[in-house]
Amino acid sequence: MKVVFMGTPDFAVASLDAINKSKHEVVGVVTNIDKKSGRGQKVSVSPVKTYALENNLTLLQPEKFKNEEFLLELKALNADLFVVVAFRMLPEVVWAMPPKGTINLHGSILPNYRGAAPLNWAIINGDKETGASTFFIEKEIDTGEVIDIAKLPIGENTTAGELHDELMIVGAKTLVGTLDKIEVGEGNGIPQNELIKGDEKPAPKIFKETCQIDWNKSAQEVHDLVRGLSPYPVAWSNFTFKGKQVVAKVFETRITEKVKLVDGVEVAVEQLAVGKIKTDNKTFLNVGCKEGNVSIISIQLPGKKRIDIKSFLNGFKLDEEVDFFF
């Protein structure tokens, strides 16, 4: 089939590459316009644009999707199907254009986690499994008929960044399989209301306040929040240090054991007060939660780089006056 691919970030590049190396033909690539960013206001291009240029693919960068000139260029590509991965919402005049429809790759097991941040919320909510879904685009976001679902386990310490990289590969493979099905008339979608098994979990956009750690929650909930936001946009907490309040970014944690062996005997580990710390100033920094404690593995203070906790403790000696708070 002739395919027009639409996407912007690194996550989309894996899918574009998989399609480009398949039997299907990428007749066009649509991505965001170039933007100026950083202090020097340098022009940055999307990873999808970079791939398209390196592979001599026809590239379109519309500022507005309803622009007549863009729509004429898009129609002239004579594509059988449009494929969307990690891109903006499309108007109906675009997604309804190709004869075989427009499909999207979404990083969840639909109908769960419709929305902007499915990978993050699956981890934040403590799910043990997620996946990638392909579906036909319709008017309401992430609600179209589901074609294929590939499932992926989530480890107890898996971060959003690690899950992103795994789903990027799994999703690309699933997407090519979906194209193969559609080509031979077997890509019939299943309405999402037939897949609902209970309350649906949403995946709304994540804001700064979403990322603040609430130490009044359990150690498991704190740990899930931290790894669900790592390495971006990153969980954070207010932090008193040398009598000053600063914001600490917390990239990695572990749930501390509730018992430890002392001379072959199991001894209960001290339950720290909420937000209070315990450290040997050398190798570990534990923080108390409402239920259980977490051990901070990597951290970042304002104006500093992200460092592991041993390096942090080597540079900053802490005392009992230090605490984290919500």
Features:
326 residues; alpha/beta; Rossmann fold; Methionyl-tRNA Fmet Formyltransferase, Chain A, domain 2; 2 domains; 7-stranded mixed sheet; 7-stranded antiparallel sheet; 20 strands; 25% helix
Characterization of this structure:
- There is one protein chain.
- It is built from 8 helices and 20 strands.
- The chain has helices at 10-20, 47-54, 68-76, 92-95, 118-124, 160-183, 219-228, 309-315; strands at residues 2-7, 25-30, 35-37, 42-44, 59-60, 81-85, 102-106, 114-115, 129-136, 146-153, 202-203, 235-241, 244-255, 259-262, 265-268, 277-279, 285-288, 293-300, 307-308, 323-325.
- Strand 17 and strand 18 form a beta hairpin.
- The longest helix is centred in the middle third of the chain and has 24 residues, at 160-183.
- The radius of gyration is 23 Å and the shape is elongated.
